[in-house]
Design a protein that fits this description.
13-stranded antiparallel beta sheet, 30 strands, mainly beta, about 5% helix, 3 helices, about 475 residues
């Protein structure tokens, strides 16, 4: 890789600030036609608090008021070497003493830089001797020629996958807000509070028809992931769960008005149509005790037409906050972080409640259906389907395993005592303090898994964002320490 970089900064009267940058990169991982990329940016800032007309009105309480704007382009290159050439490998066997070779990768001579263009607007405000400040940011980012990694492609090409492909366009829009305040500032007592909030919304604007835009299928067990134009990355798709078929009457198909659907045999006798899964290719007939999925089009058949959007892993809001208090030599600070509005696929719950094989299962399976629950009035709440060894469709991906991942975590608490110089004057110690730090004290959440703070990496190459694989929850930590300066 080779790069050239230039930057120009200009300031006028300490009120009007401008910055220009330009970067020109060349990378041998691209073909000769797309090897070079130019990535410019420009930003400006207006310190309105420095304007004479405003100083006269606000000099007693305003410390800083400025507006910022920026625009820029950045580029990403593939992480794989030799992507732009076709590589070859030797066969593991020989014929007549000779070993053949074969092409092991596609030549990606048309692969382009992934280019992200971002526009930002910002505000800086500080007042009352810097006891109250706000930093706000609004951004819009569009990524063109989006990279997807290790894509499956038709085997008719001679290959099963391709390392990289430019597949489309995605937007990330959002805002960030930071607030700091110090309501009390005295000689022996200081009380301050800080808070930050952020909101990001990503949306796929365009996806190539060369991409297999689905992970999983309507008849595969587990959750389905799709890349759909107009929807965010990290979206879940599956069936809507409606509980369990308690008796034979509930397994009869019904139309949109709730009326039973009938067919007629050769003698003209009416026969009730039973709900089926995957008719006619699979044609499994649901029985009492089986999982019940919503028949979206009321055709008496659960199949790909009943797959719906179930939410996504992106939180509506993330952030953190905490107070800081200092009284004489004592100081205390606490920090809380949170997510709100995201969905989690509880894969661990799916694995431990599916009752499909001989694996150990959760004690929740003690609530599974049996024949005594045929009467809805006797059936307990949160009833699980019956156990079926290696058959049935009780463990299909559905909102039964999608849960609200919102949480509020008391992340840390630190209590510190600082010794004064007067207390240390008869020692050889210059400064000393003793402190106690507690980490991960408590988490408020309705999520039933071990820890709601799962990965929400919504990169294009990830189809497991928001999956909970029952990783160990964050451990509580207690640290008692002393700091000495001689």
């Amino acid at each position: 890789m080779v790069s050239a970089y230039t930057q120009c900064q200009y300031s006028l009267l300490d009120r009007y600030l401008f910055n220009f940058t330009g970067r020109y990169d060349g990378n041998s991982r691209f073909g000769k036609d797309n090897r070079w990329g130019f990535f410019p940016s420009v930003s400006t800032r207006w310190r309105i608090s420095g304007e004479p007309f405003l100083k006269k009105l606000t000099s007693k309480w305003l410390n800083e008021l400025s507006f910022r704007a920026s625009w820029g382009v950045n580029g990403s290159e593939p992480s794989t070497d030799y992507a732009s050439v076709s590589t070859y490998q030797l066969y593991s066997y020989s014929y007549l003493g000779s070993t053949g070779i074969y092409p092991s990768s596609l030549e990606l001579s048309k692969l382009k830089w992934e280019r992200g263009t971002q526009f930002n607007l910002g505000l800086n405000f500080s007042a009352f001797d810097n006891r109250f400040s706000i930093d706000a940011e609004l951004y819009r980012k569009r990524t063109n020629d989006l990279f997807f990694k290790n894509l499956s492609i038709p085997s008719t090409t001679g290959f099963s996958s391709v390392a990289y492909m430019n597949v489309g366009r995605m937007d990330n829009n959002g805002w960030e807000l930071s607030i700091n305040m110090t309501p009390v500032r005295r000689k022996d007592l200081v009380v301050s509070f800080s808070m930050n909030l952020a909101r990001n919304e990503n949306k796929i604007q365009k996806i190539s028809n060369m991409v297999s835009n689905e992970s999983g299928s309507w008849n595969s067990r587990g959750m389905i992931r799709k890349w759909v134009e107009g929807q965010p990355l990290g979206s879940y798709y599956g069936y809507k769960s409606e509980g369990v078929y308690l008796n034979d009457d509930q397994t009869i198909a019904r139309d949109a008005s709730g009326n039973k659907i009938y067919t007629y045999d050769d003698s003209g006798t009416a026969q009730a149509v039973k709900m089926k899964f995957g008719y006619p290719s699979i044609a499994y007939e649901f029985q009492p005790g089986d999982a019940k999925y919503k028949d979206q089009n009321h055709d008496g058949n659960i199949d790909y037409q009943d797959i719906v959007y179930l939410g996504n892993a992106n939180p509506l809001l993330t952030g953190g906050f905490g107070p800081n208090i200092r009284y004489k030599q004592w100081s205390t600070n606490a920090y809380f972080n949170f997510r709100y509005g995201n969905k989690i696929y509880n894969y661990a719950k799916w694995n431990m409640e599916r009752m499909y094989g001989f694996d150990n299962q959760s004690k929740a399976t003690l609530r599974r259906w049996h024949h005594s629950y045929g009467d809805p009035s006797t059936a307990p709440k949160n009833l699980l389907p019956r156990a079926l060894y290696s058959k049935g469709y009780n463990d299909m991906g559905s909102d039964r395993y999608i849960e609200d991942g919102s949480f509020l975590r008391w992340k840390s608490l630190t209590i510190k005592y600082t010794f004064t110089r007067e207390q240390l004057k008869h020692t050889f110690i210059q400064d000393a303090n003793i402190y106690l730090t507690l980490q991960n004290l408590y988490c408020w959440t309705k999520y039933t898994g071990q820890d709601p703070e799962v990965s929400i990496n919504t990169s294009p190459s990830s189809d497991t964002s928001g999956y909970d694989y029952a990783t160990s929850p964050r451990s509580k930590e207690y640290t008692l320490g002393i700091s000495l300066t001689f």
